[in-house]
Amino acid sequence: MITSAVFPARYVQGRDALHELPALAAPLGDTALVVLDPGIGEWMRPHIENICQGKLTLQFFDFEGESTEHAMRAASEQLQAGGHHLVIGLGGGKAIDTAKGAAHYAPGTRIIAIPTIAASDAPCSKNAVIYNEDHSVARDLHGRNNPDMVIIDTRIVANAPSRFLSAGIADALATWFEAESAWATRHRNFTGYAPTHTAYVIANACYETLTEYAPLALSHCEAKLVTPALERVVEAATLMSTIGFESGGLGAAHGFHQGIAEWHETHGLLHGEKVAFGILASLFLTDKGSDLIERTYQLCHAVNLPLTLADLGVEDISDSYLMVAVERMMRPGECTFNEPVQYENKDYLDALKAADAYGRAFKTLPTAAQ
């Protein structure tokens, strides 16, 4: 059996790490096209221009905020027209994914990902999500290479709304449950080969880091503090989680996410918020023990993640409406099928119901009110 793993070429994290950009980028190019998240453009553009002045020439792509194929191809055209060999994705996951897409359509382009939030494990991955104009998911783009560099300034992360870190914790929490399934099945990971033991071990370390430090790190983020706990959780949610899912594998938790994303009520939610409920549903689907289920609900509650369908904004819990999600999950090739057991539609439907019922019951407990 052949196993394989992929990693970003370099990972840099810490307070004021963004100030290192000119020196770090120098080996990759002296000009760059920047895909900047429009939500932070007003303050970030002058900030990054000041940091790079006289050291790295920047041109900005007119990014409207959605990582559509049209945006990726337009950025690619601007890259090539400007003679740039370096693209920088700066902001949230969609800005970074658009930069990855631009590089994919302009082979040979180097990539620097600079997330300003720790909302998912996307920055270190070679994969990108392509959305439709209506904000629904179109497909995944499997890039040629992982980013050449990922730079995370934890001072910026700590000053972002803590909701983003909560979502990143959820996305990373799924990593261990799914890596366990991938290890059991030896299903092909994102390299096209079987998962490595390295990915399995790192996925477990990711889980252990989150269970010990996530609530503390979130409280520090809410207070806009950069602490060792915050640094540990940001690294787990960004670097460790990527290695775990990309070189390990995905499973039911992200399969449920694909289904949940079909409901129009969830289109305004963050990726990790939808994954969080996917984790909870997957616990019932895969017959996890009651102690693990309770601990997972406690952790999700402690970091402000959805525990019920109502928390996702979904009020219609009829079988017909829940089946909209299940049918999306069951499309050929989905990670839904990476579990050791092949389940039927009814199994996924009942897992959604069980997760919702447990969440509603959990919220009535005295500990949930604390």
Automatic annotation (TrEMBL):
Gene3D superfamilies: 3.40.50.1970, Dehydroquinate synthase-like - alpha domain. Keywords: Metal-binding, NAD, Oxidoreductase, Zinc. Its cofactor is Zn(2+). GO terms for molecular function: glycerol dehydrogenase (NAD+) activity; metal ion binding. NAD(+) binds at residues 37, 93-97, 125, 131. One of its GO terms (cellular component) is cytosol. InterPro entries: ADH_Fe/GldA, Glycerol_DH. Binds 1 zinc ion per subunit. It catalyses: glycerol + NAD(+) = dihydroxyacetone + NADH + H(+). Glycerol binds at residues 121, 171, 254, 271. Pathway: Polyol metabolism; glycerol fermentation; glycerone phosphate from glycerol (oxidative route): step 1/2. Residues 8-154 form the Alcohol dehydrogenase iron-type/glycerol dehydrogenase GldA domain. Pfam families: Fe-ADH. SUPFAM superfamilies: Dehydroquinate synthase-like (SSF56796). Its EC number is 1.1.1.6. This is Glycerol dehydrogenase. It comes from Halomonas eurihalina.
